[in-house]
Specification:
Helix 1 runs antiparallel to helix 4. The protein has 273 residues and is an all-alpha fold. Helix content is 70%, strand content 1%.
């Protein structure tokens, strides 16, 4: 049974959610209601179903650039949806749902028919899961840092007519707290990714760990995030400094990933391994 119809359906439901929260949180004053956040649940559940059906196949795991982008978008929506039940995050549902509506089509735009090798090995599955979660959380942290910059600019340059909208935006301290929670968990997972990559390399790839461009950029990203978390703890780094370091670390991580997967899969149409 074809599931191609799910792509436009999930995207359309995300667009409806984005339109609703844009109308109620960016143009009018709205009373906070956790029940409204449940509007994200139908497209999110369908998105998860779609990802499960297209990523895990009887022949193996198919995780190309397109599926990874869609998965990260879905995980982003899930994190903010859960956060909205104890923090004022509803105003961010509009841009996030809009991004997810586009990202749903990423597997169709960047199709990949290559199956990951060694997925039958428990060590590789563990390494893959940890690495994917680490990449996803740092991607979300980078997006969150951008949202922080937008919210800060809007709050600091709000006009008389927009003063009501500012009341719907989450407090910057709340956004900052979530940013560092994302980075802390992502940093722990990135550390485990590097460790498991070294210790399981012989078992997974039947050769010692290689010191290549992916390893260099991943280590640079690890160092940058370690400095950021240390700066936060020792010197109270926050605001624009935190945003800037978050983006620098994410750029290094992006180069580690795109240096192989995107170039090989999308440009050269080869298996990235």
């Amino acid at each position: 049974m074809s599931i191609a119809w799910l792509y436009p359906l999930v995207s359309f439901l995300y667009v409806l959610v984005a339109w609703h929260f844009w109308r109620t949180r960016w143009h009018t004053v709205a009373n906070a209601s956790n029940r409204e956040s449940f509007a994200l649940l139908p497209p999110l559940l369908l998105h998860v179903w779609l990802l499960a059906a297209t990523t895990v196949t009887p022949a193996g795991i198919q995780l190309g650039v397109g599926n990874a982008m869609s998965m990260i978008a879905g995980l982003t929506v899930l994190i903010y949806w859960l956060s909205s039940f104890h923090s004022q995050m509803e105003a961010l549902h509009a841009p996030l749902a809009g991004i997810a509506a586009v990202a749903v089509f990423a597997p169709l735009i960047f199709p990949s028919t290559n199956l990951l090798a060694n997925t039958e090995l428990l060590a590789f599955r563990l390494h893959l899961l940890i690495a994917l979660l680490a990449y996803s959380l740092f991607t979300i942290a980078a997006l969150h840092a951008s949202l922080m910059a937008i919210v800060e600019k809007r709050l600091h340059h709000v006009s008389q007519s927009d003063s009501s909208v500012a009341a719907n935006l989450p407090p910057l301290l709340t956004l900052e707290s979530l940013l560092f929670r994302l980075i802390t968990v992502g940093f722990a997972l990135l550390t485990l990714t590097l460790i498991t990559g070294v210790f399981f390399s012989e078992e997974i790839f039947h050769k010692p760990a290689e010191f290549n461009h992916k390893t260099v950029f991943a280590l640079l990203s690890w160092i940058i995030y370690a400095v950021l978390l240390s700066g936060r703890r020792l010197w109270g780094w926050r605001g624009k400094v935190a945003v800037r370091w978050t983006w620098i670390g994410f750029t290094m991580l992006l180069l580690a990933y795109l240096g192989s997967h995107f170039v090989l899969e999308v440009i050269l149409h080869r298996h990235s391994g």
